[in-house]
Amino acid sequence: MAENSSCCTPEGSCHSGGTEVEVGAVTTTYRVTGMTCGHCEGAVSAEIGEIAGVSSVQAVAATGLVTVTSKAPLDEEAVRAAVDEAGYELVGQAA
Fold it and tell me: Staple 35 to which of 40, 50, 77, 84, CB 3.0 to 4.6 Å?
């Protein structure tokens, strides 16, 4: 039996398989308030995922962090609008 039988990784991802790294990709982590569950994570991820150039989004309700990988740096106002559309608040980039 595996030591960790959870489908989730320590980072909070519930996706199996390896992590692909895009050459030249930009990864930015944002702090979002109001997320409390998997549904919240999905709503935020879906809205941010619609922004042009975004290749992956990982939202973690427990930490309030959303990690976005994109082809180029994103306009923070576009991210803010997407988070707002999902019903949550973008605090800004995580330190």
Answer: 40
Burial class (CB in 10 A: 0-12, 13-18, 19+), 59: buried
Residue 58, classified by CB atoms within 10 Å of its CB into exposed (0-12), middle (13-18) or buried (19+), is buried
Series of mean pLDDT values for 10-residue runs along the chain (95 residues): 41 46 83 97 98 97 98 96 98 91
